[in-house]
């Protein structure tokens, strides 16, 4: 499972931080940071979800009010 985080869209509401500890507050930028991610495009950060954290990742994506977080399964299908 993989998560794509559009940091440009993020408005720093931090609901995701409460759902999954891979998301951390960056109060200087007013954005979230996605721990362990790699930047694969301009402000697009991608990470493989560790085993056991899939549910948290999905909850984080659902909690985001501006849909800055997308979740894909191993077949590349978007699940959130
Ligand atoms: S919930 Fe969405 S807008 Fe809020 S910090 Fe997380 S990614 Fe950014």
TrEMBL record:
InterPro entries per UniProt: Fe-S_cluster_ET
The entry's keywords: Electron transport, Iron, Iron-sulfur, Metal-binding, Transport
Membrane as UniProt keyword: no
Keyword field contains Nuclease: no
GO molecular function: iron-sulfur cluster binding; metal ion binding
Domain of life, per lineage: Archaea
Coiled-coil stretches noted in the UniProt entry, renumbered to this chain: none
Pfam families: Fer4_15 (PF13459)
PANTHER family, alphabetized: FERREDOXIN
Name this protein carries in UniProt: Ferredoxin
């Amino acid at each position: 499972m993989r998560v794509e985080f559009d940091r440009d869209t993020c408005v720093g509401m931090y609901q995701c931080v409460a759902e999954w500890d891979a998301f951390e507050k960056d109060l200087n930028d007013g954005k979230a940071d996605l721990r362990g991610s790699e930047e694969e495009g301009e402000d697009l950060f991608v990470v493989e979800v560790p085993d056991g954290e899939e549910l948290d990742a999905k909850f984080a994506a659902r909690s985001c009010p501006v849909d800055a977080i997308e979740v894909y399964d191993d077949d590349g299908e978007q699940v959130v």
